[in-house]
Amino acid sequence: MRSSRWVLLGLMIFAVWYRAHTFGPSVGPKLWPRSTGLSEPLDCDEAAYAYIGKRIVAGDVLYRDVTENKPPLGYWIYAAAVALGGYRELAIRLLPLPFVLATTAIVWWIAGRLAGGLAAGLAGWLFVLLSTDPYLFGNGADFEHVMNCASVATLALLIPEREGRRLILAAGACMGLAILVKQVAVVQALPAALFIATRSRVGQDPKRTLAYRAIDLSAFLLGIALITALAAIVLAFQGAGAAAIDDIFRYGRALATDTLPEPGAPSPFVRWLTGNADPQGRLPFPFGSTDYLVWWGSGSWPVFLASAPATVYLLLGRGSTTRRLTAAWTLAAWAQVILPGLYWPHYYLLLAPSVAITVAISLADAARALFSRPNRHRFALAVALLTLSTAILGESYLQGRDYLWVVPEELTIRYKGGRQWVVLRSMGNELARRSSIWREPRLYIWGWQSPLHFYSGLDSPTRHFFVDNLLRDQADRGHPLIEPRTHEIAQALRAHPPQLIFTGYVPFRELRELLNERYLSSSIARGLWVIREDYGRFEIQRPGIPGG
Predict the structure, then answer these.
(1) What are the tens digits of pLDDT across the range 169-198?
(2) Does residue 546 sit within a domain?
(3) Which residues contact 62 (CB under 8 A, 6 or more apart)?
(4) Which pLDDT tens digit goes with each residue over 343-368?
(5) Which residue of 176, 414, 524, 542 sits 20 to 30 Å from the alpha carbon of 198, by its own alpha carbon?
């Protein structure tokens, strides 16, 4: 393992260079094969989280003054990034780096601990590739990077068998941090708790095994409770406790249960594999033909495919209980992808650490068994080694071809929903220029186009600044959670009418009435509305917005 530390150092240097391809044009030197044009723009999630971060830095309180449906830690991290690096693209692009580097090191350590230096190096290499996969939005700043770091730290802290309960308490605290990013991370606590409740650690008195296990499990749960309680205390102290409960627990649950099915959505039995369909119900290649979506597995399918038998091998093989825990970690990661029922590509990033570890360990085991001594299973071992090696080489080729050899701005066009993010960046910059006619301009967006907030620098007049599918689907349907929100939005807009409104979705009834009363449709872009009294001053400026 000592010699492989140099491998880890090389992997971490490579990871920084590799991820920086996304924002290479912003940093000046052309250090990448395709680093021309502009950097990759932010997508709707990144822009929304950055906007929340900006509001928090400005003194607003999460949930009370700006609303979202996830626990607070991810937003607080975004706020820290904005505070340190400013409200700009580069700060958001740099945000995932410490979490990706820390996760790379932990993945390297776990694989090395369980299977030696070869496994450590391979696991680190695979994680760098998987965690940056543009098809999974991995080269962005999604919350899954933070979740992976906290989750894999939990796994690492559970592996030692001779240590005291402080490590178990720390493992619980790390699990609590993952849960504070997204509620679904609690699924990962189940295999951890089962492992703690059933293992016998070296040096324990066999007569008191049950008592030891109960205390160990209590320490793990205490770690989770302490971290989550600390966050709850902070929110309560800020006066956001009731709003946080409503957003995280009531609204977050309804998002998974009350969002209407998309037209032509695949069956739940295959959707976990195929991903989502386009509005006409067509699936992406290789399951169908559409230019609306790209299959989530397009860049990583060789390794994901190889991870299936590798997971079974670790789960059912004769190895240690910690290997079985690692396999269970992979299955729990799949559960985190499936349970929300939404299947956004970035959810599959949660598989990256455990997939990298299981495939690397399986390959290292096959190589060791094949070359160390005569073995009657030499043919099966050779097939396994060849298959796993081919999967890793295939993964490396696909990522190089579809990431490094694609210019940054084109990445978002090819893999992340088409040209919309590029157009929204241009549109946001143009809105910033034109809105200079007002002293304190505001922009309300009924839609997912949060990059308009980021690139225009304009704030929303209501705390409900982002429209997810639940809010869109249940508006005007009398839903007990949604009707109060749409009414609150309408009240805020009437009390303080923003200069600009953008409707990415069909407006709900109260919003439509307000638009008809006080706004005129802009010629700058479809869906953009300008307050009636300033329409002429705003429209007369040129040039127009590309794509408008």
Answers:
(1) 999 999 999 999 999 999 999 999 999 988
(2) no
(3) 52, 56, 68, 72, 75, 76, 235, 238, 240, 244
(4) 999 999 999 999 999 999 999 999 98
(5) 176
Q: Which two tokens stand for residue 216?
A: 């160990």
Q: How distant is the alpha carbon of residue 164 from its chain centre?
A: 33
Both 258 and 400 in one domain: the answer is yes
> Within 10 A of 314 (CB to CB), how many other CB atoms are there?
27
Q: Is the dihedral of CA 250, 252, 255, 256 positive or negative?
A: negative
Instruction: Give the structural domain span for 313.
Output: 4-404
Percent of the chain exceeding pLDDT 90 equals 77
Task: Report yes or no on 168 lying in a domain.
Answer: yes
Q: In this structure, are 384 and 424 located in the same domain?
A: no
Split into its structural domains, the chain has a count of 2
Tell me how far apart the alpha carbons of residues 516 and 295 are, in angstroms, rounded to a whole number: 41
- DSSP 8-class letter at 421: H
Q: For residue range 217-273, what is the model confidence (pLDDT) as tens digits?
A: 999 999 999 999 999 999 999 999 999 999 999 998 898 888 887 778 888 889 999
Query: Residue 348 has what DSSP assignment?
Result: G
DSSP state of 400: I
Pick the closest to residue 133 from 350, 357, 449 (CA basis): 350
Asked whether 504 and 447 are in contact (CB, 8 A), the reply is: yes
Residues 431 and 367 in one domain: no
* Cβ–Cβ under 8 Å, residues 276 and 343: yes
Q: Nearest to residue 194, comparing CAs of 302, 321, 11? A: 321
Does 378 score more than 70 pLDDT?
yes
- 465-477: per-residue pLDDT in tens? 999 999 999 999 9
Do residues 299 and 396 share a domain? yes
Asked if residue 492 belongs to a domain, the reply is: yes
Burial of 269 (0-12, 13-18, 19+ CB in 10 A): exposed
Q: Where is the domain boundary, 344, 372, 404? A: 404
Clarify whether residues 522 and 398 are in a common domain.
Answer: no
Return the sign of the alpha-carbon dihedral for residues 97, 100, 106, 111.
negative
